[in-house]
């Protein structure tokens, strides 16, 4: 690495406040002009940066970061100085430096905030960095990671992703539209998705059911329409008797009232379309029902047509499958984070699972457990 002595003497004589920044820039430009350096040159450059970094100001640090961020031989101590600075200086290093290994990325992840979110945008994240980003429980960082199509989310703890997109339609749709995420894995957060995400989930479920129908392993669908006729349901819908409708749907599909309430409150209507399809209501009656259940839909004919197309494309079997999965994922014991479950709740959850298992097996004969009654049978499709 050669230096222009005259240029450096001129910079050194400058007593102005920008002398450190000018010297640092000159050294960085010289260093960045060559791809390969000797060990002595690397140490010299590192020493110069250490001497001038504290007095070069934010602009000088920003210029240094721009010049050396992508260089293949920038000393790691220099990179550490830069990525610990505010994000407008650190960003180039975090995104572009080929020198950042897993250990350096974990150090950046520990900085949190904007540094963690910027790291999530990096195109070559190793497994440990991916897991650190997800486990940090930073919604902004997880959102950036979901939007980063350069990395695969397959090795990421999927439950953490599901927790992040809960009640966040934008993030949910981004997750649902990723090619490395199977649509059927998102069934339990169907209500947290926007229209695009919901349509992809339904398409994935239909594809899965189609595979089952041509000789693959059958997919269990346990819900059965009661066959009591649609009159009570029509009456509740057209009279806009929300309480009656809520009770009928909760009873018909064995869903908790809180879940049915959320379905009825959904503004775009796909969840209620699923319930109506599973009830066997024909399309013409369903169209009329949409506006009675969701009055705001009547203000937009485009939304009604879009929901009608969704209803027509949805098969009864897919609707029943979706409802089964909602029922399973809505069990209270399954919705509580594991670290918050008390021993009492764990015992209650275990008892709930035991009883659920007993419903699809023969009676145990244990009077304390069976209370003299045979367990209910679950119909299989």
- SSE pattern: HHHHHHHHHHHHHHHHHHHHHHH
Helix content, binned percent = 55-70%
Q: What does the radius of gyration come to?
A: 30 Å
Structure classification = mainly alpha
The major pleated sheet works out as: none
How many H/I helices? 23
Number of strands: 0
Unreliable stretches (pLDDT < 50, length at least 5) are 333-346, 359-381
What is the distance, rounded to the nearest whole angstrom, between the alpha carbons of the first and last residues? 76 Å
Tertiary shape: elongated
The residue-averaged pLDDT reads 81
% residues in beta strands: under 5%
Plain-language structure description:
The chain has 381 residues and is mostly helical. 63% of the residues lie in helices and 0% in strands. It is built from 23 helices and no strands. Helix 7 (102-111) runs antiparallel to helix 8, helix 14 (231-238) runs antiparallel to helix 15 (242-253) and helix 17 (270-279) crosses helix 20 (316-329). It starts with a helix and ends in an 11-residue tail after the last helix. Residues 333-346 and 359-381 have low confidence and may be disordered.
């Amino acid at each position: 690495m050669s230096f222009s002595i005259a240029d450096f003497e001129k910079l050194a004589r400058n007593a102005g406040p920008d002398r450190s920044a000018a010297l640092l820039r000159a050294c960085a430009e010289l260093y960045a002009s060559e791809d390969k350096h000797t060990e002595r040159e690397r140490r010299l450059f590192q020493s110069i940066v250490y001497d001038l970094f504290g007095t070069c100001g934010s602009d000088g640090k920003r210029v240094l970061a721009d010049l050396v961020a992508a260089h293949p031989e920038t000393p790691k101590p220099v990179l550490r100085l830069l990525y610990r600075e505010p994000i407008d200086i650190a960003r180039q290093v975090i995104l572009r430096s080929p020198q950042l290994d897993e250990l350096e990325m974990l150090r950046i992840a520990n900085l949190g905030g904007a540094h963690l979110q910027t790291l999530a945008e990096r195109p070559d994240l190793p497994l440990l960095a991916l897991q650190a980003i997800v486990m940090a429980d930073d919604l902004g960082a997880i959102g950036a990671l979901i939007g980063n199509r350069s990395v695969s989310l397959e090795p990421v703890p999927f439950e953490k992703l599901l927790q992040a997109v809960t009640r966040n339609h934008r993030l949910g749709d981004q997750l649902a539209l990723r090619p490395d995420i199977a649509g059927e894995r998102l069934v339990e957060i169907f209500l947290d998705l926007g229209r695009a995400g919901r349509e992809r989930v339904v398409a994935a479920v239909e594809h899965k059911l189609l595979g089952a129908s041509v000789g693959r392993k059958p997919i269990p669908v346990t819900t059965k329409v009661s066959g009591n006729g649609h009159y009570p349901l029509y009456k509740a819908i057209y009279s806009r008797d929300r309480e009656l409708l809520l009770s009928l749907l909760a009873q018909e599909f064995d869903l908790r009232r809180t879940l049915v309430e959320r379905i009825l409150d959904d503004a775009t209507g796909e969840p209620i379309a699923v319930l109506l399809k599973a009830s066997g209501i024909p399309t013409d009656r369903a169209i009329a029902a949409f506006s009675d259940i969701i009055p705001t839909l009547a203000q937009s004919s485009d939304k009604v047509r879009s929901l009608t197309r969704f209803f027509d494309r949805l098969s009864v079997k897919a609707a029943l499958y979706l409802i089964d999965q909602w029922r399973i994922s809505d069990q209270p014991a399954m919705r509580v984070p594991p670290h918050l479950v008390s021993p009492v709740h764990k015992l209650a959850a275990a008892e709930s699972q035991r009883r659920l298992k007993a419903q699809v097996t023969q009676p145990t004969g244990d009077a304390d457990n069976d209370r003299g009654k045979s367990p209910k049978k679950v119909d299989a499709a």
